[in-house]
């Protein structure tokens, strides 16, 4: 089913978790929102116990943060209390295994929108580093009155800056703010279209939302009422959701069981009605082997496939060609993957020349690298002229500034995205140093994890923040974001110096031996990746291996538990929904190697 339904509240005292949760299932509920709205009745251990029981029953759990845990408080003491409460709720959500913590953004109190956004930004900058790696999305609830801050547009602006933020749509609030505007299925369709336009598909898959009937006045919502006493109808919402193929969690905030039951009955009726509607006759880009967010419909024009929703004319070919024979994934699946991942991938590719790793017949066919952008590239493809010392000439590299360009590259059979370490604006100064940890024949994954831990310790001692990602193949890449003020030689020397220190400390597990035959079953620390013109598989790049693994950011705490092949084009979406872009700090730079270089003696 597309729609999960549950209620908000707290389990009654004296009833054990198993009995309570089984009772929810008997009533047709498969979601539950713990209402920590007045404080914290449970500690982390209690949350963990309840969450484990809910997970065994496939009940999606969320948490509503205390009403005072808002982001727009400006009094210093109250602000500290509010931010601490929100941070603590996120930690409880982590213990529960919750997918979302729901919070109110705050109140207006006569302040301009610019000041309110500044307060939200300041608050999320403070607590963001502590909550963004918890694997729980921070859901900001839409406002229902003129007194409160947080329209869908406001939340969209916040979510663009903080990829761990999600919209929580309170349908009653939108109904009240629009003065009864959600009276038809078409009105719900309009809101869903806005969500699809403003948020990436993985961020609203599923969409967390709340529902109850209400009455409202000139300033917005006045109060909730029993279902049927107002003008908001659940079957119209369900019909629009089902037509859009939008997975949705709907939490009833009604006060009585009869309203819960009536809302659920209408939701199921709306779903059934939507299933009887005739299809549009268009097909999807994908094979159907992967459940992608925001699947793209295509139409056939002159033997080619034209995707919907792009800003430029793009015709795709051979989308049903199998690229991963053992998995059944097609070229269309590859293109759809890059369409769905584009919102987090494109910032990491922006302004960078790309070397094209082309697999026109999939992973088992012939492949080749291409530096020069193909002469048949459409005129709207932005190229980057870069000097080549090897060829003593300028090479026009492709770039991927937008989704249309990314999909055009995927249509060439570019399974991997290989960007430079520097941008066009400063081609001789990389934005990050990379430690490429590559296990050699006979080396185990535990050795890779061990050497990565040594790199982490050295970087921490030098006061440098670093971020690991799986290579998507067999190793780990560790990125150290830096300001583009050092040349490649300096960056390469820095990585080499730390690598030599690790090899000297533990020659049984690490190597920097150039001769392959002399490396042995160890982990190669490849500092030579830090050179002008060298490329490395981008974060979120697919790799041409069985299972279509994806190079994915991980937290340092996950280092020993997540393997490179665990995350692929089919499994990465729930992780993105929970974490957002863990590599977003890499984009911000903010560090130099000056102190580290002085400490290391060069």
Please describe the structure with a list of short key phrases separated by commas or semicolons.
602 residues, TIM Barrel, five-stranded mixed beta sheet, 16 helices, alpha/beta, DNA primase, PRIM domain, single chain, 27 strands, 3 domains
Walk me through what this model shows.
By secondary structure, the chain is an alpha/beta fold. It has three domains: 3-275, Divalent-metal-dependent TIM barrel enzymes (TIM Barrel); 283-419, Alpha-Beta Complex (DNA primase, PRIM domain); 432-600, DNA primase, PRIM domain (Alpha-Beta Complex). It is 34% helix and 21% strand. The protein has 16 helices and 27 strands. The strands form eight sheets. Strands 1-2-3-4-6-8-9-12 form an eight-stranded parallel beta barrel, surrounded by seven helices. A five-stranded mixed β-sheet has the order 24-25-23-27-26. A three-stranded antiparallel β-sheet has the order 13-14-15, with no helix packed on it. A hairpin with a 4-residue loop joins strand 20 (383-388) and strand 21 (393-398). Helix 8 (234-244) runs parallel beside helix 9 (257-275). 47% of the residues are buried. The model has no long low-confidence stretch (mean pLDDT 95).
């Amino acid at each position: 089913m597309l729609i999960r339904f549950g209620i908000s509240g707290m389990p009654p005292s004296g009833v054990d978790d198993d009995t309570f949760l089984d009772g929810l299932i008997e009533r047709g509920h498969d979601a539950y929102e713990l209402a920590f709205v007045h404080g914290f009745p449970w500690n982390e251990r209690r949350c963990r116990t309840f969450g484990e029981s809910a997970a065994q029953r496939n009940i999606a759990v969320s948490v509503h943060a205390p009403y005072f845990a808002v982001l727009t408080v400006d009094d210093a003491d109250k602000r500290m209390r509010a931010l601490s409460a929100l941070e603590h709720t996120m930690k409880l959500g982590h213990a529960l295994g919750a997918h979302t913590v729901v919070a109110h953004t705050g109140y207006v109190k006569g302040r301009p929108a610019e000041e309110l956004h500044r307060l939200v930004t300041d608050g999320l900058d403070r607590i963001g580093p502590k909550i963004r790696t918890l694997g729980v999305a921070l859901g900001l609830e839409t406002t229902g009155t003129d007194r409160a801050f947080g329209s869908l547009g406001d939340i969209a602006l916040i979510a663009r800056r903080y990829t761990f933020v999600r919209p929580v749509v309170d349908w009653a609030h939108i109904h009240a703010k629009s003065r009864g505007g959600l009276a038809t299925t078409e009105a719900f369709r309009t809101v869903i279209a806005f969500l699809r336009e403003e948020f990436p598909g993985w961020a609203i898959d599923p969409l967390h939302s709340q529902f109850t009937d209400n009455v409202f006045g000139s300033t917005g919502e006045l109060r909730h009422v029993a279902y049927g006493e107002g003008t908001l109808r659940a079957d119209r919402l369900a019909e629009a959701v089902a037509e859009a193929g939008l997975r949705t969690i709907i939490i009833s905030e009604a006060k009585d069981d009869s309203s819960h039951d009536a809302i659920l009955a209408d939701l199921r009726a709306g779903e059934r009605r939507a299933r009887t509607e005739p299809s549009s006759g268009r097909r999807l880009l994908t094979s159907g082997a992967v459940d992608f967010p925001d699947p793209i419909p295509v139409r056939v024009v002159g033997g080619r496939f034209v995707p919907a929703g792009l800003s430029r004319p793009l015709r795709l070919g051979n989308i049903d060609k199998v690229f991963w024979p053992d998995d059944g994934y097609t070229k269309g699946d590859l293109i759809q993957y890059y369409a769905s991942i584009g919102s987090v991938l494109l910032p990491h590719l922006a302004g960078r020349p790309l070397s094209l790793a082309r697999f026109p017949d999939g992973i088992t066919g012939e492949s080749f690298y291409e530096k020069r952008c193909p002469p048949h590239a459409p005129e709207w493809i932005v190229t980057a002229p870069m000097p080549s010392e090897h060829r003593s000439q300028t090479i026009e590299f492709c770039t991927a500034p937008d989704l249309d360009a990314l999909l055009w590259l995927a249509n060439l059979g570019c399974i991997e995205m290989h960007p430079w370490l520097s941008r066009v604006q400063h081609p001789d100064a990389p934005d990050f140093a990379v430690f490429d940890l590559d296990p050699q024949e006979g080396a185990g994954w535990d050795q890779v994890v061990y050497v990565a831990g040594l790199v982490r310790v050295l970087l921490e001692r030098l006061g440098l923040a670093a971020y690991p990602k799986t290579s998507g193949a067999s190793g780990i890449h560790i990125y150290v974001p830096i300001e583009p003020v050092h040349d490649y030689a300096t960056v390469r020397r820095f990585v080499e110096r730390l690598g030599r220190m690790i090899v000297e400390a533990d020659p049984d597990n690490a190597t920097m031996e150039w001769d392959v035959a002399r490396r042995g079953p160890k982990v190669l620390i490849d500092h030579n990746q830090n050179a002008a013109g060298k490329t490395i598989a981008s974060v979120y790049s697919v790799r041409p291996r069985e299972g279509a693994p994806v190079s994915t950011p991980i937290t340092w705490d996950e280092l020993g538990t997540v393997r490179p092949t665990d995350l692929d084009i089919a499994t990465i979406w729930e992780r993105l929904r929970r974490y957002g872009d863990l590599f977003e700090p890499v984009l911000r730079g903010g560090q130099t190697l000056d102190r580290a270089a002085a400490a290391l003696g060069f």
